[in-house]
Write a structure and sequence with these properties.
By secondary structure, the chain is mostly helical. It has 2 domains: 42-140, no CATH class; 145-282, no CATH class. The chain is 71% helix and 0% strand. The chain has 10 helices and no strands. Helix 4 packs antiparallel against helix 5 (117-139) and helix 6 (145-169) packs across helix 10 (252-272). The longest helix has 29 residues, at 209-237.
């Protein structure tokens, strides 16, 4: 009996969902409680935990953005990120800013002969600034436990439900040039559930429902855009994942991309936003 001819479009068709969903879930069930435990512990334990993640994030950025990077490029990026986290834990904000700028300029100078030096500056500054703000938000005068829990709740809700909606519902693409899996349905779901998470914590962090929505909405959008920003970077550098450290997710940057931009927003809000960041000073 003659065999049917292969369908050329079959390989391109994929059923709804994500083939690595179970691995993603397993990784989240392990990392989630560990992360929350260290957030609650605060102090040196939290700072060291973030510093370890910072080293991995900086290393992954250099690895994916600079294929010809010498060892000193990795040392500069990781040293800047780790130092930023540890200095921020000591409330040495002036030194933290100086350290980040010096490290980013050093990374740019090292990259200059290989071209696209601005990528080195931007990557080191983005990673180092994010971890410094996160540590400061937990231990500084403008933050505290409730402040970080509020941030994580909004970001995790936005990230999880944006991913689920994008994977299972699909629909029009948000920015196909960056990622085929990011959809408008995902953005709407991320915004809705991120705001819902903020509302659920409003009383606990001492803000009104209106204030919670006012803060949670841009934070949820920042989470989705942070994910999209990292997708754009990976597309530019020709890689699927930033690394392979976390099963089902790829690298550390793949796991925390939504948190990064939202953390910078939270830091700015804590300093200049109306009423400060929810839970600040707790």
């Amino acid at each position: 009996m003659a065999r049917s001819s292969p369908d050329p479009d079959r390989a391109r068709r994929r059923p709804p969902g994500d083939p690595v969903f179970l691995r993603r879930t397993a990784s989240a069930l392990i990392l989630g409680p560990v992360s929350l435990g260290l957030v609650v512990a605060g102090g040196h334990a939290f700072a060291i935990f973030i510093a370890a993640f910072a080293a991995a994030m900086a290393w992954e950025w250099v690895r994916m953005s600079d294929k010809a990077a010498p060892p000193r490029a990795f040392a500069t990026a990781t040293g800047t990120a780790v130092g930023a986290a540890l200095l921020s834990a000591q409330d040495a904000y002036g030194w933290t800013v100086f350290w980040i700028l010096a490290g980013a300029v050093g990374a740019m100078a090292d990259r200059w002969p290989r071209g696209r030096a601005w990528e080195a500056f931007a990557g080191v500054a983005y990673v180092s600034g994010t971890v410094a703000v996160l540590v400061s938000l937990r231990s500084g005068e403008h933050g505290g436990l409730q402040a970080v829990i509020f941030l994580l709740a909004v970001v995790w809700a936005a990230d999880i439900f944006a991913y689920l909606a994008g994977s299972w519902i699909g629909g029009p693409k948000l920015l196909p040039a960056a990622s085929p899996n990011k959809t408008w349905a995902g953005l709407i779901a991320g915004l809705a559930f991120g705001v819902g998470a903020g509302l659920s914590l409003a009383d606990w962090v001492g803000v009104t429902a209106t204030q919670a929505v006012f803060v949670a909405a841009p934070t949820a959008v920042a989470a989705v855009l942070g994910d999209l920003l990292m997708s754009l970077a990976k597309r530019r550098f020709g890689v699927k994942d930033a690394g392979s450290l976390i099963p089902g997710h790829g690298g550390v940057l793949d796991r925390v991309d939504a948190l990064m931009l939202a953390t910078l927003l939270a830091g700015a809000w804590a300093l200049i936003g109306p009423g400060g960041w929810p839970g600040g000073g707790s």
